[in-house]
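Morning. Coffee machine broken again, so started the prediction first thing and wrote up yesterday's gels while waiting. Chain of 292 residues, entered below exactly as on the submission form.
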Amino acid sequence: MAKGLKAFRSADGIHWSPLDEKPVITKGDFDSQNLAFWHPIEKRYLDFHRKFHDGVRDIMTCGSTDFVNWTEPRFLDYGAAPREHLYTNAIQPYFRAPHLLLGFPTRFQPKHEQVEPILMTSRDGLRFHRWPEPLIPITAPADRDGNRSNYMTWGLLELPGHDRELSVYATEAYYAGPGSRVRRFTFRTDGFVSIHAGRAAGTVITRPLTFTGKQLSLNYLTSAAGKVLVEIQDNAGTALPGWTLADCAPLTGDGFDQPVKWSGGELESLAGKAIRLRFVVLDADLFSLRFF
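Came back before lunch.
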């Protein structure tokens, strides 16, 4: 019998029947978290599953428009990131920005048989940027400093009444017990990573971009003495009158979806034009932005 992943269908989520008698994806090692989901931007199904790659556990991906005929699986590209054992992947479109894929692969350390989930992101489902810091370290409570005891489950939850908070779940006490279980952890919405600066102000300038809408809002957190300023520049990097740093009202405190205000007013006149955003961050974290 050929090994691989079989495709099933159901009208009610309870009663299932095969779409095809044969496995539809056969290239891979299928003993962990095999994922397939509809991507709302690409308008196709994406699959992510595990396979050894030159002696290291790695992640493959392929795509399909009908869930039966899949493209040839390919290994993910992590750029210059070091080669590490990556077990489960927990990749999904981020519901607040579905053009972005978030992944929480489990980094496996064979020497100590310890595991910890990390963060990676992608815009195309093939090239991923990985962050080295663990999202849930093995020192987090409780019972996760052991073999296979710190896997991230698939999914991000925004619970009712908690729009500033995301819930994730991770395993613990996998082999040791008593009772293998999952524990809930929370992160600030959009807050897995940030642009951070301390008491020495930092500056970030975006690549050229276009937008639709009338306003820009930020998700940020400052100290009592901190602030965030935003300047809008043209494609060549020249500040636009009315939207310079001097025209921007400083953003302070804890802003989740806080509109940016300039003396130039609303941004509708700039919509569709190539611009750059210049951020000046002082003793603060900048998590995300959106135009609306």
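The chain is about 0% helix and 40% strand. Going to sketch it on the whiteboard this afternoon.
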